[in-house]
Design a protein that fits this description.
78% of the residues lie in helices and 0% in strands. By secondary structure, it is mostly helical. The protein has one domain. It is rod-shaped and about 110 Å long.
Length: 181
């Protein structure tokens, strides 16, 4: 009697494991397929992202250096001269100062926006690396689950007729039970 209960419990556990493996494969396989390509791989690869990030940081340095040396750069040195001679030319000193500092303000806004772009590019690059690692790990898990499913299916085909006896009333006299079905 104990062997029958043990056999029934093992058979029940075997069927539950088979169903669990199929369910896990149904969940993991689409995930693995969707993670194979990083978020920005369709548009940008890692090297291009790195180059764009570097150019963005260089642009930030360029805008900062512009703010420092703007009085010596060709079209903007006129503003510095205009600040000193505004009254003699006929402009209000306040208007010239507003113009001068608005150029500085625009440069600051541009540097801030470039900083945001650079940080976003860095986040995309890092997230792509994480997604690539996750895709590799999920691919390994799916491979192991497929191996386990193949082993369970082989055991099921080998022992199906032994573990679950066919009911006698459904058998015809000419029917031969198929243990692999």
């Amino acid at each position: 009697m104990e062997n029958s209960r043990l056999q029934d419990d093992l058979l029940k556990e075997f069927k539950q494991e088979r169903e669990m493996i199929v369910t896990q494969l149904d969940l993991l396989d689409p995930l693995a397929v969707s993670l194979r390509k990083p978020a920005a791989a369709r548009v940008l690869n890692s090297i291009f992202l790195l180059v764009l990030e570097g150019l963005t940081w260089l642009s930030i340095v360029g805008v900062a250096s512009f703010c420092i040396v703007r009085d010596n750069i060709y079209p903007f040195y006129i503003l510095a001269r205009l600040r000193t001679k505004a009254d003699s030319i006929g402009f209000s000193a306040r208007d010239v100062n507003f113009l001068y500092w608005s150029i500085v303000g625009f440069a600051t806004i541009i540097a801030f926006l470039l900083f945001i772009i650079a940080r976003n590019l860095a986040h995309i690059r890092k997230k792509n690396a994480i997604l690539q690692m996750a895709a590799n790990r999920i691919k390994i898990v799916v491979g192991e689950q497929l191996k386990r499913k193949a082993a369970v299916d082989a055991i099921d085909q080998r022992h199906f007729g032994i573990l679950e006896p066919l009911p006698l009333h459904e058998l015809k006299s000419t029917a031969v039970p198929n243990p692999g079905h």
